[in-house]
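Weekly structure sync - notes
Attendees: PM, LS, DV (DV joined late)
Agenda: review two folding runs queued last week.

Item 1: First target. Sequence and structure tokens pasted below for the record.
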Amino acid sequence: MRSVTHLAYHVGQMAIIARMVHQGEWQWLTIAPGASEQHNKTTWGSAASRRIASEREDSQ
């Protein structure tokens, strides 16, 4: 577990450096700050969010 957290720390360092040296608008790797509400509206409750659960139920 220690090596996983160590690796994650370095990945974060690389993301910060990439953001510092990047020219132009930054493309967020995850949900951009302040965009959580919009993301939740478009994903939760949509057919895409239900697909995995319904496929799992069908296979049982």
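Item 2: Second target, run right after the first with the same settings.
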Amino acid sequence: MKFSDLTIADKAKGHAVITGYGDNAGITLEGVSASILTNADFDFIA
């Protein structure tokens, strides 16, 4: 998996939602804007 595999979008109330890493999986980062997230914010372990 790599950063470009993820879908990161802003949802209501300024929360970033990350999907694309598993079947029907998603995580919400409360108070975080999707636009500030970069590859450096993630560690991908094989």
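Discussion on item 2: The chain has a mean pLDDT of 92.
Action: LS to circulate a short write-up before next sync.
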